[in-house]
Amino acid sequence: MILMIILFVLMLFALWLGSRHGGLALGAVSGLGLAVMVFCFGLKPGSPPTDVIYIIIAAITCAGIMQAADGMEWLIQLAEKLFLCSIFKFYLHISKKMCNFAAF
User: Fold this and answer.
1) Is there a single domain that holds both residue 53 and residue 104?
2) In whole angstroms, what is the distance from residue 49 CA to residue 34 CA?
3) Structural domain of residue 21, as residue ranges?
4) What is the Cα–Cα distance from 47 to 93, expressed in whole angstroms?
5) Which of 33, 37, 78, 82 could form a disulfide bond with 14, CB atoms 3.0-4.6 angstroms apart?
6) Could you read off the pLDDT of 49-82 as tens digits, one per residue?
7) Is the per-residue pLDDT at 12 higher than 60?
8) Whether residue 42 is found in the same domain as residue 52
């Protein structure tokens, strides 16, 4: 129980220290915290979440390609049209319900 509390405090300290320096420091200090947990306390590191890493890489790559090809502006215009259309349909649906309710 004491070991778990010590490891928890170590992890929180590493995250706090990394967040104070921002950006790459967060990853670097977290890696140092992991190294301390593995080499000093003898914990086994888990397997890396490769599926999540691949999804993030794919999303960033697609966003970069769309930005380079000016596809981001087109996508935003399409989203605006869909959003406005859905708002109009929602208000139309609500007004029909209110008209039906007023008829009773």
Assistant:
1) yes
2) 15
3) 1-46
4) 50
5) 33
6) 899 889 999 999 988 888 888 877 888 888 888 8
7) yes
8) no
